[in-house]
Amino acid sequence: MRSLVFLIALFCCLSATAQRPRDTIFSAKLNADRTFTGSLPLSYGQTKDKKYPLLLLLDGEYLFDVFDGNFAFGNYWDDLPEVIIVGIDQNKENQREADCMMNQEGLPEETGAAFFEFIGAELLPALEKQYRLSPFKIIAGHNITAGFMNLFLYKEDPLFSGYISMGAEFGEQMMERIPVMLKTAKKPIFYYHSSADGDLKHNLKGIQTLDGNIKTILNSNINYRYDEFKGASHYSLVAYSVPNAIYHIFSSYQPISKTEFDEKLVKLESGYVDYLVKKYETINKAYGAKMAIRITDFKAVEAAILKNKAYAEFEKLAALSRKAYPKSMLSAYHMGMFYEKTGDFKKALKAYQAGFSLDAIGDLTKDFIVEKVEEMKQGASAKKAAAAEPEPEPTPTETTEPAKEEQPATEKP
User: Fold this and answer.
1) What average pLDDT does the segment 93-116 reach?
2) Which domains does the chain have, with CATH numbers?
C-alpha cells in the first residue's frame, strides 16, 4: 500500500513549462487510492523562504484548468499572487456522491465522513509537511462539492480562509447553520458563492436563502460576495464565477489602481505614507504573506504627495523605501525630493548624489539621477547668485523741487 509520502511525486516533476502531472496516493481513511492534479508556482524552485497560499479544488478534473488559467493571467499583471493548486479528481462513477454523502441534518456520514477526514487529517498535513504553504488556504467546489466544502466552516478553527461555492447543492439545515458559523468567525473569512438564472431549480432556492441569511450577519471578519449570472446555465456559471471569486478574495492584494488612487488615496488630507503601510499590513494579515511593497505603489504615493503638495511626507516615504529596498536608490531619490521641494537645493544635491552608489530600481536609473543632480546644481547656483546680488537703491518716481526759503511775514503799510 502506498503511503502519503508519495505526495512528493505529485509535484517534483513540475517544470517552468507549467506541466500539470497527475499522481495517486493511498488514503487510510478512504482505504483507496485517490488521483490528484497539482501545480507549483514558477518561482517555487527559485525561492527558499517564500510561502504560498493553497487552493484545493474539489471536482478537480474539470475545475483545475479554469482556476489555473485565471491565476496565471492575474499573476502576470501582479493582480493575483502565485498559489499552489491541488485538484482532487472525482470523476469516477458515483465518486462525487460517495465523497459528499451527508445525513438529513446536513452533516457528513459514512463515505462522506471518511472523505472529510481524508482532507483534514491526511491531505492537508501532508501538503504542509512537504511544501511551503502560507496559513491562507482556499477550497472550491461546484454543485454537491460546493455544498460539502462548507462543512469545514463548522470547525471552531476553520481549516480554510477562503470558500468558493458555485451552483451549490446544500444539505438540510445548512442554509441556517453556515451563517451562524460565519457570525462567530474570529479570523478573516472570504466567502464567495454564485448561481445562474438557468441554474438547477432545487439548488437555486437554497442558494438564495443562504444569501439572504448571510447578509444579515454583522461581523467585520467576513468578506462576502454573491453573484447571480443572467443568461448562464448551471455549468457555464463556473466560467463566470472563477475570475470574480478569486479577484474578490484577493482584492486587498492588488496594487493601487487608478480607481483606488482617485477615490481614496489622493483625497486624503494627510497620511499618504501611513495609507501605504496599512495596505500592506492588511495584505500580510489577511493572506499570511510577507510581501514587499510594490514599486508602483511607492510611485502612487509619490504622485499623491506631489498633487497635494504634502512635501514633508517625502522624508517619511524615504524611511519606508530604505527599509523595503535598502540596496536601491529609491530612498536617496525620496530624500532628494524632500529637500528639493522644500527649497534646500544643496542638501537635495547631496541626496541625489548618494544614489549613484546604489542599484537602479524600476524606471529610476542612474541617468535619471544625473539629470536631477544637474537640476540641483543649477538651482543651487541660481539661489546663491540671487542671495549675493545687492538690492538696488529705490528710484524716485517723481522729481522734487528744492524747498523754497520761507520769507518773514510783512505788515502792509
Assistant:
1) 94
2) 4-249 (3.40.50.1820), 258-388 (1.25.40.10)
